[in-house]
Amino acid sequence: MLNLHNGQGSKKHSSKALIPLPGYPWEGKFLTEEAIEDYFSGDRLICLLCGRTYVALGKHISMTHNVPLDTYKGRYGFPWRRGLIGQQHYAYLKGKAHKLRKQGQLLSGPPKGLQQIIKRRKPAKAPQPYHIKKSALGQMYKPETHEEALRRIKTGRTPRDVSFDDDMPCSTTINRYREQNPDYNQRYIQAVEDLPFHLQAKAFILGQRFKAEVLMLHRKKLTQEVIAQKLGVSTAPVQKAFSELGKEGRIVPVRTSKWIDQDFDEVLKRVACGQHPKQVCASSDVPGFSTWQKYLLANSEYQKRYKELIDSMPFPFQATCYSLGKRFEKEVNKLYQQGQTSTEISEMLEVSRATVDNHLPKVLKKKK
User: Fold this and answer.
1) pLDDT in tens, 211-259
2) 13 and 60 in contact (C-beta within 8 Å)?
3) What is the pLDDT of residue 121?
4) Residue 280 lies inside a defined structural domain of this protein
5) Is pTM beyond 0.70 here?
6) Most buried in the list 12, 32, 51, 215, measured by CB within 10 Å?
7) Residue 107, pLDDT score
8) CA distances from residue 213 to 39, 218, 286, 316, 348 in whole angstroms, order as listed
9) Quick one: 296 and 327 in the same domain?
10) Cis (ω within 30 of 0) for the bond into 25?
């Protein structure tokens, strides 16, 4: 076997270390656990690339030979998680870690906060076996079975949930039956359209009732995000409905020409109703947020109107807009003179403590 504990040591990583000693680099590979343990049993480890010995090989291999440690370990069959250090250095590091842990400078386990998160975490579910439907294997279902599937959908279940029942066809079989039977397809669409909107979205089938509701809310100048919240769905179904209504000509598409002043005034009107500027600008009939910001910075009169509007809004709303007016500053000054702390002021004004702290220096500076 290769003599692993002979060789000339070198404390410095010099250019001479690049010249391997006779018999190196070693072309073999460790194949047994006993051979690996024998290699790590000494206080100094031999570099199998150049034949020199070191207390720790990591820096030497990566810097002198310019070889990644994972490549070195893979080449010679070392475990990936085994450190390339000798026994003496390993004992030194182990004793140092034990001392730091005893002094409380090194944690012996995960932090307390992480431990609480781990305890609150729900147990992992056992992996579910792959669900193979009999219909996927070529079984033919009678019309009565498809009628039963339609009946279960009418009870408030999505077509996908029904297709997972053991006695029901899979989704592909049901859709194929719909294509072959127009009458059944019409009753199927009606059954899905009668479902609540969140189940329609889950089934990826949005009927005329959903489109009509989206169109009605759009005419009330609501954004897509607000419409989605009111209908209990995500924004994706609402965007899809907007696209289909635009193709039908029932919603005016986004204007590609330059926005006029009335469009920017419309943004202020909707902000006055309590909508955040970003939510307002997400709608297709008003300028985008970046376009609106450029207009705001370029028009001093418009900027003044916007600041007056925000200053009249509740303080939590002002904080979300990152625009706190003179009224907020006066209120902070008043409460500070009464001896209230920043924490108490933040609770009273329903804003974060950081928001109050950012305005306290202004108050103190004016007082001076």
Assistant:
1) 888 888 888 878 888 888 888 888 888 888 888 888 887 776 544 446 8
2) yes
3) 67
4) yes
5) no
6) 51
7) 63
8) 75, 9, 21, 31, 40
9) no
10) yes
Compute φ and ψ for 241, nearest 5 degrees: -65, -40
> What total of structural domains would you count in the chain?
5
26 and 76 inside one domain: yes
Residues 15, 19, 23: CA angle, nearest 5 degrees = 155
User: Is 125 within the bounds of a domain?
Assistant: no
Low-confidence ranges of the chain (pLDDT < 50): 1-17, 130-138, 254-257, 363, 365-368
292 token code pair: 């609106």
Q: What is the CATH number of the domain that holds 362?
A: 1.10.10.10
In a domain, 282, yes or no: yes
Q: Give yes or no: residues 282 and 266 share one domain.
A: yes
Domain membership of residue 115 (yes or no) is no
Same domain, 27 and 85: yes
Share of the chain above pLDDT 70, in %: 81
Quick one: 45 and 84 in the same domain?
Answer: yes
